Amino acid sequence: MLSLTCKTAIKAVIYLASRLDSGEKSGIKEIAAYINASEHTVGKMLQTLVKEEVINSAKGPNGGFYISARQKNQPIIKIINAIDGKKVFDECGLGLSKCSATHPCPIHNDYKEIRDRFKAMCHQKKVRDLYETINDGLAYLMG
Q1: Secondary element (H or E) of residue 56
Q2: Phi, psi of 63 (to 5 degrees)
Q3: DSSP character for 104?
Q4: Are 111 and 29 in contact (CB under 8 A)?
Q5: Mean pLDDT on 92-121
Q6: pLDDT at 133
């Protein structure tokens, strides 16, 4: 359902949020290494997230990417909309272009239910909900 870039973006934002309390900013290389992603992909994706005000960046010797206390309270759907757009929740589970309620694919009804529940979760879950499990050692970004 989500693109690889979008999944990478969510991991990067969670990583930045996990560093909020320390006040440290992170560079592209550091983020890419931690979430095991291409520096090129991470660099482009971070710029999109800054443009969409999901995260912040600062230039200079103490520069890098970071997230504010206000941004840690944003829902995960904001990251998805910034990277994949809202259409991701309208796509067919089999990738058919003409799938609809009146012209369904074989998994249409089951997939729609799962897709709608996932969308609701993305509206409900905040960045802080996800990074707190990382900081508490209950969840991981590497693997």
Answers
A1: strand 56-58
A2: -80, 180
A3: -
A4: no
A5: 93
A6: 82
* Distance separating alpha carbons of residues 17 and 55, to the nearest angstrom: 9
Tokens of 70: 């206000």
Question: Is the torsion defined by CA of 113, 116, 120, 126 positive or negative?
Answer: positive
39 vs 109: CA distance, rounded Å: 38
pLDDT at 131: 84
> Half-sphere exposure of residue 90, counting CA atoms within 13 Å on the CB side?
8
Q: Mapped to the 3 state alphabet, what secondary structure does 7-62 carry?
A: HHHHHHHHHHHHCCCCCCCECHHHHHHHHCCCHHHHHHHHHHHHHCCCCEEECCCC
pLDDT digits (tens, 9 = 90+) for 80-105: 999 999 999 989 999 898 998 899 99
